[in-house]
Design brief:
Blueprint: H1 10-16, H2 18-36, H3 48-73, H4 79-97, H5 102-126, H6 137-150, H7 157-160, H8 163-169, H9 173-188, E1 197-200, E2 203-206, H10 213-216, H11 218-236, H12 242-252, H13 256-265
Antiparallel strand pairs: 1-2
Length: 269
């Protein structure tokens, strides 16, 4: 079996999705410039909501960039895992910003502390003889105990314990169900193996050219979620980029046929 590395059809993907390729990287360039607007600011007095949003924006920017690199290099079906991470971030940001509440950030922090604490307990059970000294065990324990103290004051506690509930509360239940269940079929179900394998000239190749709409649109769907997070980032730090972000969202929500037409006319994003 021949396994080209990177996939032999990476150029084919770039050609097929040329308009999306340009839009994707031009949007990332604009958002990197947005992040740079914080340069020189005193960040010592950030609220919990600001700190949370800054972290989510930077993380989403990195994840989206990784997703695009994978897609345009030919690993189209593998981007679905990263897209699900990005959808989860968008749900969390939308939920927090519905109220812009420090208490909601605290509730989310408690959820993360409990998850980390649970992983530590699992590691101890599965690997009793392994040295966990490199893991910041003390910090995990302190965080867990600290957030447990405030749990009784967090009226939204039950929402963070259930991604489905948080997605519904944020008005993104459909996105959650599609990306956390539907795309699992795209990424791992053996019944669609034929979509990713082809034989030609006596050799078998991995065919990662995206033929399924859910996969083909992944970079653009990622941009939509990233731009929502960027809009929240812009708002909490008052960066004055509302017009730019609105224009970008209009571009990434264009039908694919219109993006292709714009590409042919020489229009830039």
């Amino acid at each position: 079996m021949t396994m080209p590395f990177p996939p032999a059809n990476a150029d084919e993907i770039r050609q097929r999705y040329e308009a999306e390729y340009r839009l994707f990287y031009q949007t990332l360039e604009v958002l990197h410039e947005l992040a740079e607007r914080l340069d020189g600011r005193d960040m010592g007095g950030m609220t919990r909501v600001q700190f949370f949003t800054l972290f989510q924006f930077v993380k989403a920017l990195k994840t989206t960039q990784a997703l695009g690199h994978l897609f345009f290099l030919g690993y189209a079906e593998d981007v679905e895992v990263l897209l699900r991470v990005l959808v989860e971030q968008a749900i969390t940001v939308r939920w927090v910003h519905q109220a812009e509440s420090d208490a909601r950030v605290q509730a989310y922090a408690l959820f993360l502390a409990e998850k980390q604490h649970g992983r530590l307990d699992l590691a101890r059970k599965l690997m009793p003889g392994v040295d966990l000294s490199r893991v910041p065990v003390d910090q995990i324990e302190r965080d867990y105990k600290e957030y447990r103290k405030v749990e009784k004051n967090l009226k939204w506690r039950d929402l963070t314990s259930s991604p489905e509930k948080m997605a519904a509360a944020a008005g993104m239940e459909q996105s959650y169900l599609f990306h956390f269940y539907g795309t699992d079929f795209v990424h791992s179900n053996p019944t669609i193996e034929a979509s990713f394998v082809r034989t030609a000239d006596g050799a078998t190749w991995f065919n990662t050219v995206a033929t399924m709409p859910a996969v083909a649109l992944s970079p653009i769907i990622a941009l939509q979620h990233l731009l929502f997070i960027a809009d929240a980032f812009n708002d909490v730090f008052d960066l004055g980029a509302n017009g730019v972000l609105t224009a970008l969202m209009a571009e990434v929500t264009r039908p694919p046929s219109e993006r292709s037409a714009a590409e042919g006319s020489g229009e830039t994003y």
